[in-house]
Amino acid sequence: MKSINSTVLSVFITLLLMVAVVLSSLATSYIVERFEREEQKKIELWAEATRQFILADENENIGLLLQVLEGNTTIPVYMVDTAYNLLLSRNVREPKRNVDAFYVEKINQLRVEQTPIEVRISDNVMQYIYYEPSSTLRWLSYFPYIQMIVMIALASLAAIALLMVQRSEKNSLWVGLSKETAHQLGTPISSLNAWNELLKTRYPDDPLLPQMDEDIYRLQNIAERFSKIGSQPTLERMEVLPLVQSAMDYMRARTSNKVAYSLEVRGERREAKAMLCAPLFQWVVENICKNAVDSMDGKGIITIAMQPTEEKIYIDITDTGKGIERRKFRKIFQPGYTSKQRGWGLGLSLAKRIIEDYHLGKLFVKQSQLGVGTTFRIVLKQTKNG
Fold first, then answer.
1. Do 280 and 340 touch, CB atoms closer than 8 A?
2. Looking at the DSSP assignment, which residues form a beta bridge with residue 211?
3. Nearest alpha carbon to residue 358 among 226, 235, 261, 254
4. Last residue of a domain, one of 109, 138, 167
5. Which of 110, 138, 166 finishes a domain?
6. Domain span at residue 87?
7. Average pLDDT in the 40-66 region?
8. Could you tell me which of 90, 122, 161, 318 has the fewest CB atoms within 10 Å of its CB?
9. Do residue 119 and residue 239 come from a single domain?
10. Each residue of 109-161: pLDDT tens digit?
11. Is the pLDDT of residue 213 over 50?
């Protein structure tokens, strides 16, 4: 239900941002067009005032004309003759050097971009006025792009926040499920311990009691693992090879004799130490091996190859099972995905979480071929002394 609510919220926020961007862009476009029309009218008025100022005689009152001419303080204006030589410029920011070349280039550019305003001085004399948008209008024209960038940034932040909320919900679910499982296992394990001690007093020589001790210890170990999943586990620097060997031996003792196991260390480097939570790391190896046994239908070969390097430790677990389609390489790690008739589809998802979230490593399908087998790769960070 929370996932559905999060999705609906995400869609609503996205639509709201899209509507805001569209409305803002339309409003800005309208304002820009209005400013363009206003500036064009101002320049046409300025051109007419210029024409009348040139034609005015000595006795004519030109105060109003001067007021119009001097009133333009924002729009860059260029007045040229019929040969496009500059006669007058206003509100133009000139460079410190090559001023003449600057004006020639600017006028040639404006000749291509716009139709000039004609100022007819007499039948034989014609002048032209070109103009550029004011700085205010230029900034307004950039505003939709700025808005879009801001909206994209806000949408990205909203998406990141939503993903963090969803991740937090998943973490809470994992923690709750793990703690509840550990709690539920605690009571029957305590009862089994009590019954086992009672049986030892009555039947001290029974050969089955050591096996019961081992199974009860195993149940305690499972409960401990669930409790560590439910909280941030403590990591210790330790040798990786003995833990892998122990996990493999555990699986060998509990699977058919038709499944062969082998462990090898590749490369020249032999030291392989990493920051690990031993119970959780061993559970990951056991879980991958168990999936391999299921994939091989209880008959085949499981090879564990470890290759330490200066910076990393690579652990490849290869089986001779059915294989995995390439399009499912990532899907198999999703919670709830399973190809088995029984099971919750949480094993590989939990294994990936343990390796990547708790141990800051990587777990992925290195390669797989249908009918040949699959290789899972675990990557851990090699830790050095000190």
1. no
2. none
3. 235
4. 138
5. 138
6. 2-138
7. 80
8. 122
9. no
10. 999 988 898 888 888 888 999 988 888 777 777 777 777 787 777 777 767 77
11. yes
pLDDT of 220 > 90? The answer is no
Q: Which amino acid is at 26?
A: L
What the block records as the tokens of 67 is 């007021």
Residue 255 has pLDDT above 80, yes or no: yes
User: What residue type is 7 in one-letter code?
Assistant: T
The CA-CA-CA angle for residues 344, 349, 354, to 5°, reads: 130
Identify the band that residue 2 occupies on the pLDDT scale cut at 50, 70 and 90.
very low
Regarding pTM above 0.70, the answer is no
Q: What's the start-to-end Cα distance of the chain, in Å?
A: 48
**Residue with token string 């994939």:** 295
Residue 185 included in any domain: no
The whole-angstrom separation of Cα 341 and Cα 71 is 85
CB atoms within 10 A of CB 318: 20
What residue type is 280 in one-letter code? L
Percent of the chain with pLDDT over 90: 27
pLDDT number for residue 306: 94
Contact 358, 308 (CB under 8 A): no
E strand or H helix that includes residue 67: helix 63-71
Overall number of domains in the chain: 2
Write phi, then psi, for 265 (nearest 5 degrees).
Answer: -110, 125
Q: Does one domain contain both 257 and 126?
A: no
**Residue holding tokens 């024209």?**
141
Give the burial class of 280: count Cβ atoms within 10 A of its Cβ; 0-12 exposed, 13-18 middle, 19 or more buried: buried
Burial class (CB in 10 A: 0-12, 13-18, 19+), 208: exposed
Alpha carbons within 13 angstroms on the beta-carbon side of residue 368 total 22
Output the six-digit token pair for 180. Answer: 């509840």
pLDDT > 70? residue 97: yes
Longest dimension (CA), the chain: 136
Task: Say which CATH number the domain at 262 has.
Answer: 3.30.565.10
